[in-house]
TrEMBL record:
It comes from the Bacteria. The chain crosses the membrane at residues 20-43, 49-71, 101-126, 138-160, 172-191, 203-223, 243-264, 276-297, 323-342, 362-383, 395-413, 419-438. PANTHER family: FMN_FAD EXPORTER YEEO-RELATED (PTHR43298:SF2), MULTIDRUG RESISTANCE PROTEIN NORM-RELATED (PTHR43298). Keywords: Antiport, Cell membrane, Ion transport, Membrane, Transmembrane, Transmembrane helix, Transport. This is Multidrug-efflux transporter. It is a multi-pass membrane protein. The keyword Acetylation does not apply. It is found in: Cell membrane. InterPro entries: MATE_fam, MATE_MdtK, MdtK-like. It comes from Psychroflexus lacisalsi.
Length: 448
């Protein structure tokens, strides 16, 4: 037993973990659900369905990349709030919260203007051309207007998670997802004689309205339910520098993560329109699974930070074992459901025979990696709550540039196309999970 001072209390219960994890799962799948609903509805329009589906998939991946990179302040503020909650010092971060929200808002405006201006250059780099490129540019320039809504909402969700409450974020996400799906049908297909069919642009407008609804609800819960406020202090909070440092390392980590996703989509686009259409479905299902499993990672983030603040290392070790077990079970359940409806799932998104054939030939590989993904995501969440941003950055850099990229090059050279992409993802996730498990064991087992 370590000589470190720590609280001698029973381990975190299944109920405590699920109180955070289950609402976090529902909240976390809102963004990928928006993209999936867009893809499912767009992929079934009568006009240029394959090109529209490819464009929606490319834009969805790029939006996820940008949001993941910029939203790392959500993780940073969650870690700091949870650690200060554990040490009973929430007063020390009261001015930090509105400063962080403002930082996210300003970053979102900057990214919007830069990416909207260079949209053609950006999506040409994904090997999009012709009608796919035209669809991609018009769809993105509307969807990107939602950056301020999304990034401010995510910062507020980070505060909620730090306070050990993911229920408020869940409510916001459920309403936002329902609004998006309803408006998708209304605006994409239109109502004859009343609302014109707006195709891709309609899906983009639906997404923005849904994000605005989520932000309005998040602000309500923030103002009415939390001990924080939106009043800005001219004096910078002393925790702002550590937050920016943590967020910067997580920016670089997420940038490396999204380089892997960019390479995957770029290669798939180069293979042809049917390949990128199939890849769009595969990637968005993979992202959906990731956000689903990530609910338990969010619980690890919130509870782990609180336990670190309280120096409760034995509870932290037990938490890592329990939360990993629950996540693997979730992954196995998802695998089972998808295996049962293997052929039907592709039909939800597209009816093109060639696209469906490519999708079904690779989908089993996406399913096979889910238990490994769950372990990587669990320890990602715990390490974020512990403030271990530098190590997370280094792991992703190694996994991407020494794992994913070389594997992709080798199997692409062998002509395996979509198989090359998903074998590379398998190697990528294996490196991430092993590196995090080994580090956590070496650092915290001796403290129990």
């Amino acid at each position: 037993m370590s000589s470190n001072t720590q609280i001698k209390t029973p381990k975190v219960s299944f109920k405590e973990i699920n109180t955070i994890a289950i609402p976090a799962i529902i909240a976390g799948i809102a963004e990928p659900l928006i993209s999936l609903s867009d893809i499912a509805i767009i992929g079934n329009v009568e006009e240029n369905a394959v090109e529209a589906l490819a464009a929606a998939g490319i834009v969805g991946s790029f939006l996820s990349a940008i949001i993941w990179i910029l939203a790392q302040t959500k993780t940073a503020i969650s870690a700091l709030v949870s650690q200060h909650l554990g040490s009973n010092r929430l007063h020390a971060v009261k001015t930090l919260v509105p400063q962080t929200i403002l930082l996210n808002f300003l970053l979102s405006l900057l990214i919007y203007f830069i990416t909207a201006f260079f949209a053609e250059l950006i999506f040409s780099a994904y090997n999009a051309e012709g009608l796919i490129l035209d669809y991609t540019k018009s769809y993105y320039r509307i969807r990107a207007l939602g950056y301020p809504f999304t990034l401010v909402t995510f910062a507020i969700f980070g505060v909620f998670r730090g306070l050990q409450n993911t229920l408020w974020a869940m409510k916001c996400s459920l309403v936002g997802g329902a609004v998006n799906i309803g408006l998708d049908f209304l605006l994409v297909y239109g109502i004859e004689g009343f609302i014109p069919a707006m195709h891709l642009e309609g899906a983009a407008i639906a997404s923005i309205i849904a994000q605005g609804v989520m932000l309005a609800m998040a602000l309500y819960f923030f103002i009415k339910k939390t001990p924080f406020h939106l009043k800005l202090s001219l004096n910078l909070n002393p925790n702002l520098k550590p937050l920016i440092s943590m967020a910067s390392n997580l920016f670089l980590r997420t940038l490396a993560l999204n380089i892997a996703i960019y390479l995957a989509n770029s290669y798939a686009t180069d293979y042809g329109k049917n390949y990128i259409a199939a890849q769009s479905i595969l990637m968005n299902i993979w992202l959906f699974f990731s956000f689903f499993i990530d609910g338990y990672a969010n619980a690890g983030n919130a509870i782990g930070g609180k336990l670190l603040g309280a120096k409760a290392y034995t509870k932290l070790w037990d938490l890592s074992k329990d939360i990993s077990k629950y996540a693997v079970i979730i992954a196995l359940i998802l695998m089972g459901i998808c295996a049962l409806f293997y052929d039907e799932i592709g039909l939800i998104f597209n009816k093109d025979e060639q696209v469906l054939l490519l999708f079904s030939s690779v989908f089993w590989l996406v399913l096979l990696m889910q238990p490994i993904n769950s372990i990587a995501f669990m320890f990602d969440g715990i390490f974020k709550g512990l403030g271990e941003a530098k190590y997370l950055r280094n792991v992703l850099l190694v996994a991407t540039f020494l794992g994913f990229w070389p594997t992709l090059l080798i199997f692409d050279y062998l002509g395996l196309k979509l198989y090359a992409i998903w074998i590379a993802f398998f190697v990528w996730m294996l490196i991430r999970s092993l590196a995090l498990v080994i580090k956590f064991r070496n650092k915290y087992l001796d403290k129990t």
